[in-house]
Specification:
single chain; 255 residues; alpha+beta; 2 domains; 11-stranded mixed beta sheet; two-stranded antiparallel sheet; 5 helices; 13 strands; flat
Length: 255
């Protein structure tokens, strides 16, 4: 009877071992799986690397645990280097032979110092060095190149704002305004932007005189002429204001 009970005891103990330890083994396997493969269970993607860290196409360093949630924003370039967005009717004078081409449809690219011209159903490109001058007829805006002024002057297009013995010109250029987007505040511009920059010049006593950007510096440019200095001070001439500069050029031509 003891043997019988002993057999039953061993059988019962064996069954008990299966019922107690087997579930524990399963639980440990699951726990190890969760620790070793969290990304798989949570549905997250990882960036594979054979070197520990790699550099992604957008310039950021990533490693095996890096989460990829969305593609980084690709900064672009907005704005335009065109002085007029539309095609404009113009008369163009060539520098080489002074030949005049009338009633051409043009676009003025001050970023690359080019005239785009519709000619015989094609778009022709004329750089500033090939032109002497042109006039946008609808606006009555006249532009000169250094071919009409002085070979030592900057390249590009100079708009004539006032024509006289002392003349006022506006030389157009472009600059890039960098993006300033703040992710935390969700404000600012995400893209760089092309902006058109005005550099004003006087042709004063035969010299191309770049207009300084403060009144104090502007006065120093005319420190030999008390009448001009008094006019600048009395009228509070703002050298960044085109109308003020036209008034100053007009006054200089009266004295």
């Amino acid at each position: 009877m003891n043997n019988c009970h002993s057999g039953e005891y061993h059988k019962t103990r064996s069954q008990s071992n299966h019922s107690i330890f087997h579930p524990i083994v399963i639980i440990w396997v699951l726990l190890i799986s969760i620790v070793l493969f969290p990304a798989t269970l949570l549905g997250q993607k990882v960036v594979p690397s054979t070197q520990g860290t790699v550099k992604d196409p957008f310039g950021e360093f990533v490693n095996l645990s890096t989460k990829i949630t969305e593609m980084p924003y690709q900064k672009g370039l907005k704005g335009s280097g065109y002085l007029y967005e539309d095609w404009m009717l113009a008369d163009v004078v060539m520098a080489k032979d002074r030949k005049v081409f009338r009633d051409l449809m043009v676009k003025v690219d001050v970023r690359h110092n080019l005239l785009e011209i519709q000619y015989n159903d094609e778009i022709k490109l004329l750089n500033a060095g090939q032109a002497l001058s042109f006039t946008v007829k609808s606006e009555q805006d006249t532009f000169l190149t250094r071919n009409a002024l002085n070979p030592d002057f900057p390249d590009g297009f100079f708009q004539v704002l006032y024509n006289g013995e002392t003349a006022l010109l506006n030389h157009y250029m472009t600059d890039i305004k960098p993006a300033n987007y703040n992710v935390a505040l969700d404000v600012g511009n995400k893209d760089d932007e092309i902006i058109i920059v005005n550099q004003y010049y006087f042709i004063f006593q035969g010299v191309l005189l770049p207009v300084e950007n403060t009144r104090k510096k502007l006065i120093k440019q005319f420190d030999s002429n008390d009448q001009i200095i008094d006019y600048i001070r009395d009228r509070k001439i703002n050298p960044k204001n085109e109308e003020d500069l036209v008034n100053l050029a007009t006054y200089i031509n009266t004295i």
